Amino acid sequence: MHQRRHHIGVVLERICSQARLTAEAVADRTGSTPRDVADFLSGKKFPSTIFILRLAQISGTDPQLLFKVWEDEHERRAPRLHEPAKLVDDQAG
Predict the structure, then answer these.
(1) Class of domain 7-77
(2) Residue 46 in contact with residue 76, Cβ under 8 Å?
(3) Are 38 and 23 within 8 A, CB to CB?
(4) CB–CB of 47/70 below 8 Å?
(5) Are 10 and 75 in contact (CB under 8 A)?
(6) Which of 1, 17, 52, 57 has the greatest CB tally within 10 Å of its CB?
(7) DSSP assignment string, 14-78
(8) What is the pLDDT of residues 8-62, one digit of tens each?
(9) Residue ranges covered by each domain of the chain
(10) Of 88, 31, 36, whose CA–CA distance to 54 is shortest?
């Protein structure tokens, strides 16, 4: 089964590519581990706001844009607390 990549990983990967930053360079310049950077870029791990700010600084990206992407993904990953639970199967007869 193919796992869907998270939007933030795609965006971070594109930013690094456009800025010609390798994952190793990003790790070194943001104070992250290479494994964490790889996980952020693949969408396996969710980056901290500190990482987002540092990536914006080293890549020349608008930090407000990156924070907006971070917020959108954070909301997307959060459990849906306001959706009513389905207690009965509508198809049951």
Answers:
(1) mainly alpha
(2) no
(3) yes
(4) yes
(5) no
(6) 52
(7) HHHHHTT--HHHHHHHHT--HHHHHHHHHTSSPPPHHHHHHHHHHHT--HHHHHHHHHHHHHHHS
(8) 999 999 999 999 999 999 999 999 999 999 999 998 999 999 999 999 999 999 9
(9) 7-77
(10) 31
Closest CA to 19 of 57, 55, 59, 52: 59
> pTM for the whole thing?
0.76
Residue type, 7: H
Token pair of 79 as six digits: 């459990």
**Closest C-alpha to 69, from 53, 80, 93:** 53
Q: Which residues are CB-neighbours of 67 under 8 A, at least 6 positions away?
A: 49, 52
Residue 25 tokens, joined: 């360079």
**d(Cα 69, Cα 73) in Å, to the nearest integer?**
6
Helix (H) or strand (E) holding 8: helix 7-18
